[in-house]
Amino acid sequence: MTKLILILAAQILLLAALASAGDDGDFARTINQKHLGLHKEEKLTHLRVYWHDSVKGRNPSAVMIKQPVSNSPSFGSITMMDDPLTTDVPRNSTVVGQAQGFYAGAVQGEIGFLMAMNFVFKTGKYNGSTISILGRNTIYSKVREMPVVGGSGIFRFARGYVEARTKFFDFKSGVAIVEYNCYILHY
């Protein structure tokens, strides 16, 4: 009987050891933060860009791929975008990147969108870097705040927020220009 108990105990210990080794031993490990450059002091970067959205014309930068429900001007709509980001309000200003993602009508009773977009920078020291923005945008509010939830390149491990202010909006032509002030903490 004692021999049987010892054999069962040994099998339980063996199974427990195998199970715990398989939990995360094959794909996850703790690493030193210095290997990812996280030992450096965090920086706060401010970027101001102008987002140019055009849903009409010969070369729209955004396309509605899902129409809103019949009783709402925007609720239920989904629009994909690849909008230029410039250094100033005029469309022919220097392009520094693209806003790529979508906005979806997510508010009933007013015009408000869920914004999910990457600001992809294409010039200077930020070339190839991105920030990811995800948040609520009620377009008739004077200032809208949305979180920066991540980034890549220089902005790896980024966090922060953006403030959006409409500079120009013409429903008839389908053009909107929005100033984005981006406040980004990164290493």
TrEMBL record:
Subcellular location: Secreted, Extracellular space, Apoplast
Keyword vocabulary terms for this entry: Apoplast, Secreted, Signal
Residues making up the signal peptide according to the UniProt record: 1-21
UniProt key word Secreted: yes
Assembly information from the UniProt record: Homodimer.
Family the entry assigns: Belongs to the plant dirigent protein family.
Role this protein plays: Dirigent proteins impart stereoselectivity on the phenoxy radical-coupling reaction, yielding optically active lignans from two molecules of coniferyl alcohol in the biosynthesis of lignans, flavonolignans, and alkaloids and thus plays a central role in plant secondary metabolism.
Record protein name field: Dirigent protein
